[in-house]
């Protein structure tokens, strides 16, 4: 009896090990090299999950990749950290319309390559991908002092914390604040009657960001479920086999 239990236990352990090994192997996919992929660079840098998600929903990430591949002007991107996004008043991003979300991300992108030293000689206001830099629209000013670079929008001021990536084509800088354009974040007019309704419907828009909106979770869940069904089947089989052996 003890012997049978022991052998079915070791068989179960063996099956467990094989399953774990199989899962581990499917999890590691070879990284393809090719054109510059800003998402991949941000993923590698860590602490930019909100920006990555926003770049995905608004498709600005794809626009940046395409533009980098198809022109030699280069690009400059200010990347606010997850911490910077969480310092915004809660619900700020979700209360923006889909178009405003696109503009917000584009406001962090300049249509040419600017190195840290070149910031000292740029003329204000800078033009961003969000459009018109005239007062009230999307002006962005840069001020420098030695190696320090500050960015001001007329709503808030951010400091460039460090260079995440630079290759002469793409310059990616970490900033400590979300750059808030005047056009979207200028002091709002007093609330009128229809305002709450608009806000509510916007919150329900498919572009709304929530931690659960990532489709990345589903494949893992599915394979997890499959695995547990398979494991269950194996356990039943093992018990069946050991009972059979026991009765022989
Ligand atoms: C860029 O990288 C991300 C994350 O690594 C990946 O999901 C995406 O498919 C890549 N895009 C291209 C065009 O290779
Ligand atoms: C990059 O540009 C080349 C040549 O212009 C083009 O053939 C290729 O499809 C582009 N790749 C991407 C991912 O846009
Ligand atoms: C940049 O901003 C920081 C913090 O607000 C401030 O202490 C510093 O003097 C600013 N530097 C420049 C060059 O504007
Ligand atoms: C940006 O710079 C321009 C030109 O120097 C100036 O007129 C404008 O007031 C500045 N705006 C902000 C928000 O600093």
Automatic annotation (TrEMBL):
Main location: membrane
Name of the gene encoding the protein in the UniProt record: LOC107765203
Single GO cellular component term: side of membrane
Transmembrane region(s): 229-247
Region forming the signal peptide: 1-24
Ranges for region Disordered: 193-222
Lineage per the UniProt record: Eukaryota, Viridiplantae, Streptophyta, Embryophyta, Tracheophyta
InterPro entries to which the protein is assigned, alphabetical: FAS1_dom_sf, FAS1_domain, FLA_A
Cross-referenced SUPFAM superfamilies: FAS1 domain
Swiss-Prot/TrEMBL keywords: Cell membrane, Glycoprotein, GPI-anchor, Lipoprotein, Membrane, Proteoglycan, Signal, Transmembrane, Transmembrane helix
GO biological process, one term: plant-type secondary cell wall biogenesis
Record flagged with keyword Transport: no
Similarity-based family: Belongs to the fasciclin-like AGP family.
Biased composition (Low complexity): 206-222
Gene3D superfamilies in UniProt: FAS1 domain (2.30.180.10)
Topological category with respect to the lipid bilayer: Lipid-anchor; GPI-anchor
All copies of domain FAS1, residue ranges: 35-179
Protein name: Fasciclin-like arabinogalactan protein 11
Coiled coil: none
Keyword Transmembrane among UniProt keywords: yes
